[in-house]
């Protein structure tokens, strides 16, 4: 009598999605709403239902037995100025919208059209396949999660980079030396960055290597450098928010508060480019001085 074939293992739900589901359970979000979001993100419906059920069961058990582990995140006031238009070092920058708790904002006119073109020109000759941080080892690796190509500019590497860093510091109040190198990313048709968090997960062994220098990431600035024909927006699944790329504009979001807590609601993704191409600059800000 032949043995019954063993079915292939089910795909593992990414830790970012586990965090997202658990956070929604804590906040009282219903299964139907979470299911819609997962279906829209491309999950099989049966798989999504099972994942929601399992995470809900585990989270509710923790709520009963160790409620202190599930303290709900409370954002500090957003770092940006309250005015609708502000002087950021050498340039006037508009603030298009601001969400508070979670802290997300749209900035307009952070770069001029010529500055966007110059950053693309400077980066074009040194692009390489983008990488992600392995949660276990902390090492950088190529992954299907992130299919863009990219490069970086060291702090103050040229006059344009220096100007942009000073503008970001003036807007956020975060010193220039707390910023990681500017990352320039290029997405072709079909390229994307699937839902993820920018902070380093304290539960992952590999995170310790990254927070040793400069501490945890506290905020992100994503600056769009070109007009994308279709697709390529920055989406926040939990907030039902999508920012469409416009040259010189930026989406800014914070996910670390003064209590040292992390905001899982800032799960975000770079949607696939449907037509044309997308160029962006990403700036990650740290707790303390970052030197590398």
UniProtKB/TrEMBL annotation:
<keyword id="KW-0223">Dioxygenase</keyword>
<dbReference type="GO" id="GO:0031418">
    <property type="term" value="F:L-ascorbic acid binding"/>
</dbReference>
<keyword id="KW-0847">Vitamin C</keyword>
<dbReference type="InterPro" id="IPR005123">
    <property type="entry name" value="Oxoglu/Fe-dep_dioxygenase_dom"/>
</dbReference>
<keyword id="KW-0479">Metal-binding</keyword>
<dbReference type="Pfam" id="PF13640">
    <property type="entry name" value="2OG-FeII_Oxy_3"/>
</dbReference>
<dbReference type="InterPro" id="IPR006620">
    <property type="entry name" value="Pro_4_hyd_alph"/>
</dbReference>
<feature type="domain" description="Fe2OG dioxygenase">
    <location>
        <begin position="178"/>
        <end position="287"/>
    </location>
</feature>
<dbReference type="GO" id="GO:0005506">
    <property type="term" value="F:iron ion binding"/>
</dbReference>
<dbReference type="InterPro" id="IPR044862">
    <property type="entry name" value="Pro_4_hyd_alph_FE2OG_OXY"/>
</dbReference>
<keyword id="KW-0560">Oxidoreductase</keyword>
<dbReference type="GO" id="GO:0004656">
    <property type="term" value="F:procollagen-proline 4-dioxygenase activity"/>
</dbReference>
<keyword id="KW-0408">Iron</keyword>
<dbReference type="InterPro" id="IPR045054">
    <property type="entry name" value="P4HA-like"/>
</dbReference>
<protein>
    <submittedName>
        <fullName>Prolyl 4-hydroxylase</fullName>
        <ecNumber>1.14.11.2</ecNumber>
    </submittedName>
</protein>
